[in-house]
Amino acid sequence: MQSNDTPTHREAQGGPPPGILAVVFTALFLAGLIVSTLLADGHPFPSPFGDQDAIVAYFREHTDAIRISGLLQFGSSVPLAVYAATVSARLHKLGVRAPGATIALAGGVLASAALACSGLVTWVLSHPAVLELPALVRALQLLAFGFGGPGHVVPLGLLIAGLAVPGLLAGLLPRWLSIAGLAVAAVAELSTLVLLTEGAALLLPLARFTGLAWLIAAGFLLPRRRVRTER
Length: 231
Prior knowledge:
Layout: H1 18-39, H2 52-61, H3 63-93, H4 100-124, H5 128-131, H6 134-148, H7 150-169, H8 175-190, H9 203-221
Helix pairs in contact: 1-3, 1-9, 2-6, 3-4, 4-6, 4-7, 6-7, 7-8, 7-9, 8-9
């Protein structure tokens, strides 16, 4: 006869630490920017709004830098997707029944998918056959920018807002961090305007890099469980 002394309440698996996932995502993303710039002799990735001849010349002269950039950008999308799934599950575990947890998951998955697409399109731009067609190079660079710019940053804002709102209302995150997250999310959503005017492109790095820092902080500060009074 089996004993009934075994615990009946087992803590559900919390998944990988979201703070670590955010650090890995950030490290891979920044490595793509830094390494590709170093391989390109210090020349940064060209703006999609620049001169077409200069853009084509950059891609032709720095194919290794472009390939590494695409690789690391694609790779960074994986921990971001896992981060979104982990924090969404944790919010549910913490008793959040509002749409915030689902919004965080949807935003994170969309942001991850857009970043992966941007990385793959960037990788395509490293192939010599493509570089023989200047108009195609320009079109693919705009597509990579669309995916990696507003296509990534806008849903990233949804991920941040989906965490910040329940973090504020349920007291799961420090109040200052939740309010900062809402501000970052607002800037991320406003970056949609880059599809109408080039001047709004300044919102993209502002939302992106503050968002990266916010996701790291929230990942480490989001509690694993709520303190409850036990019988």
